[in-house]
Description:
The complex is a heterodimer of chains A (771) and B (92).
Chain A: H1 10-15, E1 16-18, H2 20-29, E2 35-37, H3 43-47, E3 50-51, H4 69-74, H5 85-103, H6 120-140, H7 176-205, H8 228-247, H9 257-277, H10 285-302, H11 314-317, H12 326-329, H13 342-361, H14 368-380, H15 385-395, E4 401-402, E5 406-407, H16 408-419, H17 423-426, H18 429-448, H19 453-485, H20 497-503, H21 507-529, H22 538-575, H23 581-602, H24 605-633, H25 647-655, H26 669-675, H27 683-706, H28 712-738, E6 750-754, E7 766-770
Antiparallel strand pairs in A: 4-5, 6-7
Helix pairs in contact in A: 5-7, 5-9, 5-13, 6-7, 7-8, 7-9, 7-15, 8-9, 9-10, 10-13, 13-15, 16-18, 18-19, 19-21, 21-22, 22-23, 22-24, 24-27, 24-28, 27-28
Chain B: H1 3-14, E1 18-23, E2 28-37, E3 42-46, E4 50-54, E5 59-65, H2 67-77
Antiparallel strand pairs in B: 1-2, 1-5, 2-3, 3-4
Amino acid sequence: MDGGEGEGGEGERGRWQDATAEVGALCEALGLGGMVMREGFTLQESMNALELMSPKMDTGMNADAYEDLAHRLAKGKIRVPVESLEELDWVAAQVLIRELAWHDGHLLAASVYACAHLCPQTQSLLKPFVRDLFKRWQDQQPDTPAPASKSEKRSATANTAKDTSQPFALLEDDTDEVVLASVSFVLFTSIIKSCGVARLCIRRGDIYEEEDWSSQTFGLPLGENSDVPGTLEMINFAQDVLRAAQASGRKAFAGKCERIAQHLLFRALYLQALHEMLRPNIEGWSTAEKLWAQMAELVPVVGPASVSDIEPQERWKAAFDADIHRKLLASAPPRAGPTCETAPAQLAFANFIADMQTACALRNTDTLFAMYNALMRFSRRTPSIVVRSLVMLMLYCENELAMGRIAYEGWIMDDLQAYGVPVHLRETEECRNYAKFAVKHMYDVLRMLLANRARQRRNIANLLPDWAAMQQEAELYDHMAFVKANPSLPRLEDMTREQLRENMHFYMGSWATEWTIRLMLHHLTLGFELDLYNINEYAAVFWYGQDLMARFLANRDETTKFNMELLNRLTRSAEDSSLPKKAQRSAAARCVGLRKLIGEQKTNIALVKERLCVEVERLCLDGLLRFVIGLAKAGRFPPPQLEFGSDKIRYNHRFTPYSYLAMPRFLPYESFAQVTNMENYETRQLLENAALFLEKARSLLASAMKAPNMTDVEKAYFKALFKVVISNNVNVTRALESVDKPLPEGARPHVEAQFPSAKDSCFFPVIVSKE
Amino acid sequence: MTSQEAAETRLREMLGSEVRVTLSDGRIVNGAFECIDQGMNAIVRDKKIGLVMVPGIHVAKFEVEAKDQGSKATAEAAPAETPAPAPVQQEE
């Protein structure tokens, strides 16, 4: 490597052509994840490459140009304290952008602490300004009654309704600089403290992965053990100082006092809300909900977009540098600092507050299935790790209660009832023991939904073997519960097959199978969302998906059918005078329970909606399956690029997580190959059948969207799925029109999957055939 | 051909040829072009150091060998054409 520009003469310079712009443009055109490499260049080789300009690997890099914070302060490149309230307003908004970037996984040192004003060196420069004024303010505070506890000793709530008609005679001959320093010191301290409390929430929730959030602070202070009441007291102080400055008619405080007061109010509410949400047994969540509602009103006022009309001076901008802690970050994996654009940050801020409000509302969920659905919908919003961690704390409070009030065992028993397990079986000790056994696995399912979307897929693959064990245990408990509840029947081993089929149903096993299929379907559809499937895998995925959905429906139908038949038998027994009175009474009592259960199932809106959704999605997958096979048969599908392996290897790799399960049984590649063997079909027949299924899906969706009791979220999903079905149907029609025409000379078939409804959380693809 | 495919094709044409990359701190890396990605992070096989990766954000200048110079160099470097062997006389 040459040390500088001292290369050879004219001949040498003429040898080289500047291609910087061209290469830059070409690289940009590569698209996300795009890369080109010389043939034979391997990953292993690339790992040996020395990374230049990295403090870890490049000892020769010229770091003279880098100035640390001390240098910049000494040279006056950063002004401390801020010079105006306008500057403080702009800085506060910029810090908020970086705080959101920190929630998003950026390093603390490269995001929040990229602001020089928050660093300990600059904060310590402000302390001398603040000390006397703060003491004077404290001396002026009215005496408060004896506190209930130590933590409330200097308790102060946000000063939302303080009497401002008589501002404190606070400011004496304090300069504007002292006032600005005091207010900015408090604002920055409150930002650091709120980051500390957020960090505490995330660590307690303990669901973060390395890509979610970086726990490293690099020694930069966050004050996790901070004194939230003490910080709130300081915020009150700053608000009083601002009021006093404004009331005194100082020119420097004529304009922006109200805006800075709102920044301070936001920080106070934010700190309080997090503090309340960390209280045991979610005691503080109803208070927190009100606080988040207040913060939602402040979003347009203190968000990043609120300062878009301010033209920042160069010295303001100089206080922000993601590289400011380069020496600290030398030990960390190299990572670029966050890109800080106003519009996305404003949206992220609004979403963060809205997600917190949604999280608070989750505590009112009553049933296990409702919580599962709520968390599925919540997860699609991709909430930040702070929100997800708090929801985790809500799901597992002290005494192993969900939301501080519901025992998981009871939740599971209710879910068994909703599924259709009759009361005479639910009352057995065996059923209760199974519910206890299921607690950990069900909790794991809810916990899985709080991981990020990619990790959810991995976590489901890890959960499925546990649910295989759930099914095995269920079989045992089903046997024992049946025997306990039916002492008059022969022993199981003495029963004929018909007697067994007539009398016994694997209720708990079927319930476990239903939950297993839910997990498998979520695993499958996450593959679309994460764009994991190669286009040549779509036939297998559609086929497996529609099969799972068919088995989901059949599983529930079998239980319902068995219950109906059982009801008929019990009704006959209750009226059979040849039976002993006791037996008749017992049959009659069971009839009452079963009749009520069947009625409740029919009116269980959540289960009815789920069934409808699965039916529609199944029709959609059936149509798509026939469409892609039809395209392949018509020669419109590009052949797979299989350098290593085969279709079978790819199939087995893709569906390996399902091979641990007994129910539903694993579908081997041979079954897939046999069913989708193109020789069994005609192209036109396949495409026409595809159109038929898609039309059925369209018709069912059209009536579903008009049904009452649909929430806005459900309507939006059905509308999005409707769009996908229509688009696919149009493409099938086009394919039918061109099926008999050969491809033009030199044209290559090309099929791609598009996801036009992804923003509405509908990840079913639209298959597009091109040339 | 999509723009992505065209970009890939053009970049592949450059692979293997000699390039000169100037870093943001003024140093120059000179060697065979091995690999590049969307962020313009380039791997070059420097003659003195071996494989180096230059982060895209630190690429101040990216130079390739000028084509006419390259072809002239190739022409100078190419061995002189050997005359066609004389037909073997058939021995009678």
